[in-house]
Amino acid sequence: MSMEDAFRKAGYKGGGKEQQKPAPAAKEFQLEKDYTARAEQVILELKNSREFKFGDFTTSKIRNILAQVSEIYNDVLAEPGESLSPEIQSRIEYLKVRLVYECGREPKIVKPFAEKAGLLELLNGIGASRQNFIDFARYMEALVAYHRFHGGRD
């Protein structure tokens, strides 16, 4: 599901004149071992963008998502096996809903961040893979760390 489809399903109409490049499809955007380099690239591109107000991009804008990722991450680490339980998979599905909601709430800050980082596509690519979720959670941590490192506020 593309970010546009998710917004449409959530009832978000948009209305901005700005046209952004669509985020890469899930098959094209996979986290590699250098996910930290990707996280830094995302933050630097946002910081250097003329359209994005980096000064308005605070950790609090994505705190709800970060808190939910951390809760799931802790449970995933405690869960044995390589596959995620149906309950954890359901919580990841709800995480997608929360992400779309936050993007709709903050369309000029959270939405460009989520699109640039490929968050929805990555969430869609997790499936039942424990390792995929662990990698996603670490990528989110890296995004927050580089945001702060490059002058982002809490």
Key attributes of the depicted protein:
154 residues; 7 helices
In words, what does this structure look like?
- This protein has a domain at 63-154.
- Helix content is 60%, strand content 0%.
- It has helices at residues 3-9, 35-48, 63-78, 86-105, 110-117, 119-126, 130-149.
Would you summarize the structure shown here?
The chain has helices at 3-9, 35-48, 63-78, 86-105, 110-117, 119-126, 130-149.
Please describe the topology of this protein.
Layout: H1 3-9, H2 35-48, H3 63-78, H4 86-105, H5 110-117, H6 119-126, H7 130-149
| N- to C-terminal distance | 31 Å
Following the backbone from N to C, one meets helices and strands in this order, namely: HHHHHHH
Helical residues, percent: 55-70%
**DSSP strand (E) fraction?**
under 5%
List segments where confidence is low: pLDDT < 50 over at least 5 consecutive residues: 15-29
Major beta-sheet overview: none
Structural class label: mainly alpha
**Radius of gyration, whole Å:** 15 Å
Number of strands: 0
The DSSP helix count reads: 7
Broad shape: globular
Average of per-residue pLDDT values:
83
